[in-house]
Design a protein that fits this description.
OB fold (Dihydrolipoamide Acetyltransferase, E2P); 3 helices; about 15% helix; globular; DUF669; DUF669 domain-containing protein
Length: about 180
C-alpha cells in the first residue's frame, strides 16, 4: 500500500507573489511577540485565507484560499509601546467585548488563535538592494468581524478535566 500517488494536474504556480489586494476572510493561525535581529520588538501574526468560502467569495477567498498573509504590529518609536488601538481593533474583530482583560502575550495568543476575522490586504512596493519588491500589508485598523462565523467555533477539548471519579493514581502507573 502506498502513502500517496503524485498528481500534478491541479498544481498552481503562484511564484510566491503577494496575495492580490482585497478584503479576505481569514483565520488567525498564529500570533506572538518577536524581535528583529537589531532588537526592535513587534507582534507577528499569520493570517490564513479561509478555504471554506470558495462559493461565497469566489473572487477573493475562492482564488487565494489556504494562502498565508503575514502581518506585524510594531511598537511605537516615540513610546516604545504598542498602540492600544491596534490591539483593540483586532480583539474587537475577533468578537471580544469591551473591557476584556488580556493578562499577557500567551493569553493574547490563546484568545486569538483560531478566530475568524475579515481583513483588507494591500500590496506595499519598496526597493531592496536596488531591486523592486512587493509584499502584502495588513493594518490593524482594517480588521473587522467576520461575515461568515465558523460553524464549530469551539471544538470540544478531549483533554478537558471532568468530575469523573475514574482517576488514575500513582500506583496505577508503571514508573
Amino acid at each position: 500500500m502506498t502513502l500517496f500517488t503524485t498528481n500534478y494536474k491541479n498544481l498552481e504556480n503562484n511564484d510566491n507573489k503577494p496575495v492580490p489586494e482585497g478584503v479576505y476572510e481569514v483565520i488567525i493561525e498564529d500570533t506572538h511577540p518577536d524581535a528583529t535581529p537589531g532588537g526592535t520588538e513587534y507582534i507577528s501574526m499569520n493570517l490564513r485565507i479561509r478555504k471554506d468560502l470558495d462559493k461565497a467569495l469566489p473572487n477573493t477567498n475562492g482564488k487565494q484560499h489556504n494562502r498565508v498573509v503575514f502581518m506585524n504590529i510594531w511598537k511605537r518609536k516615540k513610546t516604545n509601546k504598542y498602540d492600544p488601538s491596534d490591539l483593540n481593533f483586532i480583539m474587537k474583530a475577533a468578537g471580544y467585548p469591551e473591557n476584556t482583560p488580556v493578562a499577557d502575550w500567551d493569553d493574547w495568543s490563546d484568545k486569538l488563535i483560531g478566530k475568524a476575522v475579515k481583513v483588507k490586504v494591500t500590496i506595499d512596493k519598496f526597493e531592496y538592494k536596488g531591486k523592486s519588491e512587493e509584499i502584502n500589508q495588513v493594518w490593524a485598523n482594517s480588521f473587522r468581524k467576520t461575515d461568515y462565523p465558523l460553524r464549530n467555533a469551539q471544538a470540544e477539548d478531549p483533554f478537558k478535566e471532568t468530575n469523573n471519579s475514574d482517576g488514575i493514581s500513582d500506583k496505577d502507573l508503571p514508573f
